[in-house]
Amino acid sequence: MAELKSRRVVLKDYVEGYPTEAHMELLPAAPVDEAEDGSVLVKNLYLSCDPYMRPKMSRPLHQSYTAAFVPGAPITGYGVSEVVRSSTPGVAAGDLVWGMTGWEDYSVIKAPFTAMLTKIQPDDGVPLSYYTGVLGMPGLTAYVGFHHIGSAKPGDAVFVSAASGAVGQLVGQFARLMGCRVVGSAGSKEKVDLLINKFGFHDAFNYKEEDGDLAGALKKRFPDGIDVYFENVGGKMLEAVLLNMKVHGRIAVCGLISQYNLTAGEKEADVGVRNMTSLVAKRVRMQGFIEPDHKHLYPEYRAWVMPHIKEGRVVYVEDVADGLEAAPGALIGLFHGRNVGKQVVKLTTPDTE
Amino acid sequence: MAELKSRRVVLKDYVEGYPTEAHMELLPAAPVDEAEDGSVLVKNLYLSCDPYMRPKMSRPLHQSYTAAFVPGAPITGYGVSEVVRSSTPGVAAGDLVWGMTGWEDYSVIKAPFTAMLTKIQPDDGVPLSYYTGVLGMPGLTAYVGFHHIGSAKPGDAVFVSAASGAVGQLVGQFARLMGCRVVGSAGSKEKVDLLINKFGFHDAFNYKEEDGDLAGALKKRFPDGIDVYFENVGGKMLEAVLLNMKVHGRIAVCGLISQYNLTAGEKEADVGVRNMTSLVAKRVRMQGFIEPDHKHLYPEYRAWVMPHIKEGRVVYVEDVADGLEAAPGALIGLFHGRNVGKQVVKLTTPDTE
């Protein structure tokens, strides 16, 4: 085999505020490191852009569940890859896998990430890119958050923010399948249309067009209150939701994207959440969660969701950027809500021989 | 029986900000209403001052779990009483009871509150006033919040705010009994001494003497983080706690006394809680609760706590105000932290015959 060469996207320096193209750099193709014993060499096919990646771009101040990226090293994230060489048992050349990989043409995956690689059956009849979304981390996130953390029941009134995103679009559909009434919020007319016409939300609204009265927007759509809030944004939306929760309501805190790009000064100045007394008055349970804690539920989730996908009851909208060179812009766009649906990057690896 | 006359403390008008003596009035003795069929006429012996009473003094804006007081009508709350006449089955003249009563010498208790009256065995060997505290609502609140909502386990690192109060002092002792390491915060040196020397907290601090660095005060006392936070105050303390929670920590939200006396303007200006992203990073469960939802656990709680009290493993400190005329000042003092221990009012009913 000819020597493999790989381009890579590295973080140039830690980010404060919104990330820009200047924070990342695409390095020209260089020889791929020799694969150590126990590692897996993969060719990356799809890379996933996810909100949780933003805190990893910040200078690490507080302990987090996920280590910060290292300036100068490739950005890492979920992806779909083809195995080139493997010295890990159970994974062989030619296998398709999904898991944590690097933002590069080829990656050498080492422990502990080799153990997290999940094999994909090539003939399973769904697009490979779905393993960065509905069949990957965002899918299990939606499933765990809605069913387990949110303890959703048929008939519940469900609200989802960032509802057209990788996770939100699934929560809405899972809620509809369970017989809940589900309302979503998003940041453009196009997304609101998608929520209602494509994903089957019962109602939806553009949070930018409610004259700042988010509590009123929710009151109108949930006159009897919200049983389950699937939280993706935080800040003012959370404040408004707290005023509109039903007694014994549940808030599954998946993410707080409104907070990730605040500068230190902005955090200091204005991002507190008011209305916390509603937690007591309404006896609300509010619980943060992350998908890695619930990996053991993946087989159960996959078995449940696969027939829904194949028979058209669950659809999935992706926003596909083309090529590794487009990856930084795709990730940046996520934090401005430019993506419509799950943001993926499709790699078109240059011939290296 | 001679005609009974009763003084009463009424709310004069709704309160904004801190309540003052001007918001309440002690009305002179007037004949007690005829007891309707099914009601219970009681002579009040002890009245309880509790933080939850403050939201009931505000003009009702939002739905709450407890109705607002009615201006001109007596303030209501928990108390210990002796039954004078009863047309409710199971309750007879001469019985001692605890439950919801009025701030007056004599009260006519009607449905649904008659069903909430709990009989006290006169020979049970504990002070009657304890039924406003360790053997009443605050006791069950501490038990449910710590064991059930907080899911405390032996060895847990436990933090309690407002730790010398009616509920906090019990949470600290229950934590010690379970084999947890427990730290409390309070607002004076006297209270901090009480926490360590009387209630057996392992450590304690005066939140007013930490130069505003509550997060640092907690970090010093919980270098490995907090497993269970029993929340009584909210605001800045909650912000600091969020930064110091352990992964999979639990926050039992009992009350948020820092918020109750804020004016509308103050609420608008500055009371948001930051650091909510810790909920996700640490996968924290934060849950509001109120004692009335858990009444069915009272017999279990009483059976558990009674031997601890009798054998001296659980002690209870009360701050007893003397006479109905002292009740408004006692309630007001609670919101300024003037009480040391559980605030009770002992009634010395004037002879009315």
Automatic annotation (TrEMBL), chains A, B:
Any one Pfam family match given in the protein's UniProt record, by short name: ADH_N_2
Keyword Glycoprotein: no
Occurrences of domain Enoyl reductase (ER) (ranges): 40-345
Keyword tags: Oxidoreductase
GO molecular function: oxidoreductase activity, acting on the CH-CH group of donors, NAD or NADP as acceptor
Gene3D superfamilies, alphabetized: Medium-chain alcohol dehydrogenases, catalytic domain, NAD(P)-binding Rossmann-like Domain
Entry-linked InterPro entries: ADH-like_C (IPR013149), ADH_N_2 (IPR041694), ER (IPR020843), GroES-like_sf (IPR011032), MDR_fam (IPR045010), NAD(P)-bd_dom_sf (IPR036291)
Keyword flag Ribonucleoprotein: no
Quaternary structure annotation from Swiss-Prot or TrEMBL: Homodimer.
Protein name (Swiss-Prot/TrEMBL): Predicted protein
Protein's organism: Hordeum vulgare subsp. vulgare (Domesticated barley)
